[in-house]
Input
Amino acid sequence: MIVTCQQAELSSDATSTLVSSRAMDTLANRLKHRRKQLRLSQAAVARAVAKLRGRAFSQQAYGALESGDSHSSAEIAAIAEVLKAPLAWLRDGKGPAPEAVEPPRFESAVDADLGFNKDEGAILEAEVRAGAGGGGVSTGAYYVSDGDGNSYQAEGVRDRWVIPQAVVREMLHASPSHIRIFEVIGDSMLNPDSRAFSLFPGDRVFADLRDTTPSPEGIFVLWDGLSVVVKRVEVVRGSDPMRIRLISANPQYSPYEATIDEVRIIGRYVGRFTVF
Output
């Protein structure tokens, strides 16, 4: 009985190894495995590749590689760079697989700072600076960057805005602890039609942290799987699982989609501070 039991264990281990090996035997499987390991959406990978190469690369093109409908791409080297995987392993299945890494996290020192308002009655604004570019996201960084016209990175609390609480309650319908402020950098939310809604570079966006459901649809600050963005959010009707469409005000930047599980909505846009 002991021998039989040992043989069964060996057989089970061998089967497990075989299944694991088969799971990595195609480009499609390796792409999907690595992307999920990094907790990135297909749209996020496609945008990062496009930014890195300086030319269009759609979510549909990347999705075709993961589904197996396409077996090669001129952008495979850029995809490997975005996924932090050896090119030989990703393209040909040769060499060691990349080690699991801590994915870019939303939680960080900034998140901790923003979650605790030391100055009662003050609204906190995130500290931002020019991002690293290339679509890269460093581990543990709280990025406020966007391949669609915005690129900056938050590292702490930039300032504490002291606004009369009565004004905050009446105009923003919230208390200061419910509001966070982000600076707008870039032109993705700048509509060339002067009659249409726009967010101008340098504007400060006020986001209500309590409202994180895109119903009704509107403008939100959110983590889209790669970066923190300010976008108009629409629910894709009839999608299962639920998908949302992220839309820039500037028609130069194409809308893109993600599942509701691939994003984290930080808060709904409730106002802005702007100078004309």
User: Anything to note?
Assistant: Confidence is low (pLDDT under 50) at residues 1-20, 103-119, 128-155. Residues 124 and 160 are 5 Å apart (CA to CA).
